[in-house]
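We give this protein:

***
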Amino acid sequence: MACVSTKASFVLLCSIILIVTYGTLLPAVFSTQIVYWKVAESHNTTHRVTDNCGNSTSSAVDHLVAKEVSKWTLKFDMTIYIPGSIAGIIVTSWGDRVGRKNALTVPVLAIALSNACMAASIYFNWPIKSLFLYNFVAGLGGYYTTMLMQGYAYVSDITPSDFR
């Protein structure tokens, strides 16, 4: 009976990790698109820069937009990964003391809250700088890396030694 419970826990945990992974990685794509849209809008250029055959019809303004978006993306990545690295160390060591399930909720809740921040930014048409909030909140919870570390550690803890 304990093995059935363990298998059910394993399937449930894998399902949760899959859903949270989807909820983590998809907003990153949305964030990039939002930045492109807002930067292009600030330069009054929102036209397509490639045709269906891939022939570039880009102009100097399009290159300027791409360069500016690249700078914003670097800043956003630093905003998420610096606090995420520090939080990852803290949450992982905390998980060793209080249990993996408890520590696994920290990045999941932070990711959910950060996605809500990004949704509000889109809905209310806030400026680009509001996306710093989205990234910082996700980083405070340790982001995706901490979720994976805690998830794999939990799976390792509940898996019988015969199956490892």
